């Protein structure tokens, strides 16, 4: 089955074919770093397989996991959009992964020829602004329980697809940093969910055993 890339949705079939033909297939091993925060970047990656962690250094000097991306997602577009820009995050392979990469030079050539590519880059920025303002709203106005539960719902989708049970292969530290809280608080919320038979806590992973109940719990905060 071919991966459908959200980023390429607005392109015509011809434009999409041309763009994919310019890409270079790359393979990464689990724990390999695909790019470092602060480094100059000149490659856009489309994720074909595997899951990748988006990490940043916090103002207090910790490394926080912000997000997990997987097949059909893209990363690296931000540093490409401005010539001097540095990578805004470190991207690490959570498991073996494959991407299709496109260099700045290739993208520049495609931009000059295909109008859909220019539109695609604008759409990407609009999407980033929407995502970031959503995150700010959540961080400012949702209680911590809601943030943790909503993150779990999202991660269950990424790790479990349509399956009724989702095994999220992340630590409680990762979940805590994605929800903007401490491990102690995240653990307390997870234990309450465990008491309600919604999740099971295992070493280095969180198993969502009742996704329907988890979604219902997330909806109680609307
Ligand atoms: N909060 C985030 N959620 C998802 N992806 C992100 C986030 N922050 C940065 N990225 C991606 O990580 C990439 C790191 O390199 P770039 O800054 O070029 O482009 C960045 C985005 O594609």
From TrEMBL:
Record InterPro entries: cNMP-bd_CS, cNMP-bd_dom, cNMP-bd_dom_sf, Env_Response_Regulators, HTH_CRP, RmlC-like_jellyroll, WH-like_DNA-bd_sf, WH_DNA-bd_sf
Domain of life: Bacteria
All residue ranges annotated as the Cyclic nucleotide-binding domain in the record: 7-128
HTH crp-type domain ranges (all copies): 142-212
Keyword annotations of the record: DNA-binding, Transcription, Transcription regulation
Record PANTHER family: CRP FAMILY TRANSCRIPTIONAL REGULATORY PROTEIN, HTH-TYPE TRANSCRIPTIONAL REGULATOR ARCR
Descriptive protein name: Crp/Fnr family transcriptional regulator
